[in-house]
What does this fold into?
Amino acid sequence: MSELRHAEMFLIRHAPVAGAGRLAGRLDLPADLSNQAGFSALAACLPEGAMLTSSPARRCLMTAEALMPGLAVRTNERLWEQDFGEWEGLDHTAIPDLGTLAPEALADHRPPQGESFRDLCARTTPALLDLARAGGTQIVIAHAGTVRAALALAVGSVAGALSFHVAPLSLTRFYVGPHGHWSVAEVNWQP
It folds into this structure.
């Protein structure tokens, strides 16, 4: 059995989607890179020598390049955002109000032809655990759902992770101890 290592995980939600106002999910839309001051401030917080992994979404890859130009980026399909099925591309005002659902029901709710947040966690968690097992410092550029999946690992509750706000171009940082325990260092830090 191999020994687990300590890891520091920097999870960054991609920059705002260009032409925001619609549910992007699995739509491969570009990022709005106009917040140069925000990119500079966030880049200054990132450690050198870290491994960089990204969702293959164009908005994530654009964010990675803007934050760390020239650094090799590995992509991982499991880090894609939640599949919102028939809701993809809808204006946010056209999406049904799910605010009346209890947290567990919300975590299990699947949009038509889509996946639930619990499904996203089942897909994304193994990728996050693989990165943590590699040890060292890991930077992950992904989506709000991916960051919440990591929060679910730390707080031990898939439904509970849905109560965290994850803004575009924000940093959420975790420490992962040698026994695999995730602890939250900071959530939703924005430059």
